[in-house]
Design goal:
Chain B: One of its GO terms (cellular component) is plasma membrane. The complex is a heterodimer of chains A (about 325) and B (about 280). Chain A has helices spanning about 10-20, 40-60, 80-85, 90-120, 125-140, 140-155, 160-165, 180-205, 210-220, 225-235, 235-250, 255-260, 275-280, 285-315. Chain A has about 325 residues and is mainly alpha-helical. The chains are: A mainly alpha (about 325), B mainly alpha (about 280). Chains A and B meet through helix 1, helix 2, helix 4, helix 5 and helix 6 of A and helix 1, helix 4, helix 5, helix 6 and helix 7 of B.
Chain lengths: ~325, ~280
């Protein structure tokens, strides 16, 4: 098997299976070349190659051209686009904001999901109903979620009016207008939208726990807290890997929730990569948008992929 | 540290009610309040909805709001447009993905491993949306539903290939062998043996693709743009963008309700399938 670990998503199960089953398969009709002909893979490879890989390759070319709505021809332009996104500060700012966004979303989405899974772990009718309730936000489109929270969190919105009546005086916290805290608020919304999915994954992980190990821990006198941190949580490793991966990748490609709540504001302090690309592409500066798209690609390769590969290794070593 | 007896048996005495009570409060605050806000605002007249709050409407005008939102938001056109791009994408992702997964799962060798690794790279790598537009323009597919289908298929093929390859590797090869002994060619083995066995993982892949593609606006924006090809969420964006300036929260939320109902309905009907589909694919 080739080194798929470089991509980080080898299926651990099938590896085990492959090891376990090859020795004791007896004589078998020799595999012939035409049993699974290549042409079954060709359509998928063609579509994936042309519409996913090729654009990513082109993305290493167009940032260095003058491609825009203002020229009829496309010419080589050196590093001018990279220089302009460096000099106006947008590149470093968007890297910082996107990375902060991704880390916070990974924390919130997993924290909420795990807490809900533990809360609703027992398989009762009551719990099954509330699992479905907490899954509802996953089904609502991210854009709609953004508008709901914009109405809730606006300065004259629903949350402040509830807080005002609770506090007995006027509360007008600018939830979506703080240059420091709005990013945290938006990532909380993102975590809220996807917590139901994380919850389901954690529930599946909790359900697949070997009963004898937990029983042994109980007999040894381990309390609930101890059992959770030293046995149950480590056994959740595959669920953690899956959830952190989807949270990181999903949040680095986020657009809808940010666009609907803040549209990148206030003062560009929630401007993730995709918001920038959308804005700059709309201004006709295609090559500059493509340059930022290349930065996103590199950030994912340099930061997210090692984290995911590391989680995967940790899980396989256990 | 005092140990909290966590999950296993039901707790005795009054503590037994702590957990359900906590669930009720959390659900009411985190899910109940946002959904209540949507429901109640969507039936208010504009004057009451201008500052969204949780109070009951003094005057209910549900029919008017929903009618107006339905017409202005081109609900039917958006729904049909969404179906026209999402359904073919899902079918292609599943069919092409299954073919590739079969080859990757069964054939051995360096080339197979390398191509598999390349094919699932889309699980992690972001789609290069700007150059996709460039390429689609050159292919004459920009702004067309075919272009959108090709982009979605390219984006989600990695997911289906990943799930299906893992799944096929765990299927006993004897089933295929038996069919081959009976003289079935590769096409018959694939369509009559492999595809039917893939049913559980097809559910997983369908749900994952639907969750993202059905509500996508970012890629739809670049590929389809607005106009008469706009999908349902793209229409919401256009409606909302226009209405926010007019402070028409009641119309926005009427649209949100109508747009979300199909997904919620599908979930309610197929809840067990959806849940087992998601969990069986993700954590084995």
């Amino acid at each position: 098997m080739a080194d798929t670990a470089t991509v980080g998503v080898t299926d651990a199960n099938s590896r085990k299976q492959a090891h376990g089953s090859t020795p004791h398969t007896p004589r078998r009709r020799p595999r012939t070349r035409s049993d699974q002909p290549w042409w079954f893979a060709l359509p998928a490879l063609a579509v994936f190659g042309v519409f996913f890989l090729l654009p990513n390759l082109l993305n290493f070319v167009y940032p260095f051209t003058n491609w825009s709505a203002f020229h009829s021809d496309i010419r080589f332009a050196g590093l001018s686009n990279i220089r302009s996104i460096l000099q106006d500060g947008s590149m470093l700012r968007d890297i910082r904001i996107t990375v902060e966004y991704a880390v916070l979303v990974a924390l919130f989405q997993n924290g909420f999901g795990l807490a809900l899974a533990l809360l609703l772990e027992r398989d009762t009718r009551f719990n099954r109903f509330f699992r479905a309730v907490f899954f509802l936000p996953v089904l609502i489109s991210a854009l709609a979620v953004g508008y709901i929270f914009r109405a809730l969190l606006a300065q004259d919105g629903a949350l402040n009016s509830v807080l005002s009546s609770l506090a007995g005086h006027q509360v007008d916290t600018p939830w979506l207008g703080s240059t420091t805290w709005t990013l945290v608020v938006v990532t909380l919304v993102h975590g809220w939208k996807w917590m139901g999915l994380a919850m389901l994954i954690y529930l599946a992980g909790l359900k697949s726990m070997p009963g004898d190990v937990l029983e042994a821990a109980r007999i040894d006198g381990a309390g609930g807290w101890r059992t959770f941190w030293s046995i149950r949580f480590p056994l959740l490793a595959p669920a953690v890997t899956f959830n952190v991966t989807t949270a990181l990748i999903g949040s680095m490609n986020t657009f809808d929730i940010v666009q609907a709540t803040t549209a990148g504001g206030p003062g560009s302090e929630t401007e993730v990569f995709n918001i920038y690309m959308f804005r700059v592409f709309g201004q006709g500066l295609y090559a500059q948008a493509s340059a930022m798209s290349l930065v996103l690609f590199l950030i994912v390769v340099v930061l997210a992929v090692p984290v995911i590969v590391g989680l995967r290794r940790r899980e396989n070593n256990q | 540290m005092t140990a909290l007896p966590v999950p296993a048996p039901a707790r005795p005495g009054p503590l037994r009610w702590v957990r359900p009570a906590a669930v009720l409060v959390i659900a009411a605050v985190t899910i109940g309040i946002p959904l209540w806000l949507v429901a109640v605002t969507s039936v208010k007249p504009q004057a009451e909805a201008i500052k969204p709050n949780l109070s009951l409407p003094h005057h209910v005008q549900a029919a008017e709001n929903y009618q107006q939102s339905f017409d202005q938001g081109k609900m039917i056109q958006g729904f049909v447009n969404s179906l026209l791009v999402v359904v073919p994408s899902v079918v292609l992702v599943l069919l092409l993905g299954a073919g590739a997964a079969w080859v990757f799962a069964r054939r051995k060798g360096r080339l197979v491993g390398a191509l598999y690794a390349l094919s699932i790279s889309g699980l992690l790598l972001p789609p290069a949306v700007i150059t996709i537009v460039m390429e689609l323009r050159q292919l004459g597919l920009a702004g067309t539903q075919w272009g959108m289908i090709a982009v979605y298929t390219g984006m989600y093929l990695s997911t289906s290939i990943f799930f299906m390859t893992g799944f096929i590797r765990n299927l006993p090869e004897e089933l295929e062998e038996a069919a081959r002994m009976d003289g079935a060619g590769p096409a018959r083995v694939f369509f009559q043996v492999i595809l039917p066995l893939l049913r559980p993982v097809v559910a997983t892949a369908t749900i994952m693709v639907m969750l993202f593609a059905w509500s996508d606006i970012f890629y739809a924006f670049f590929v389809l743009g607005g106009g008469d090809k706009a999908t349902l969420p793209l229409n919401l964006y256009q409606v909302a963008n226009a209405q926010l300036y007019l402070n028409n929260w009641h119309l926005i939320f009427a649209y949100v309700v109508m747009m979300s109902l199909p997904m919620v309905a599908v979930f309610v009907v197929a809840q067990r399938r959806v849940v087992s589909g998601i969990t069986s694919g993700a954590v084995k």
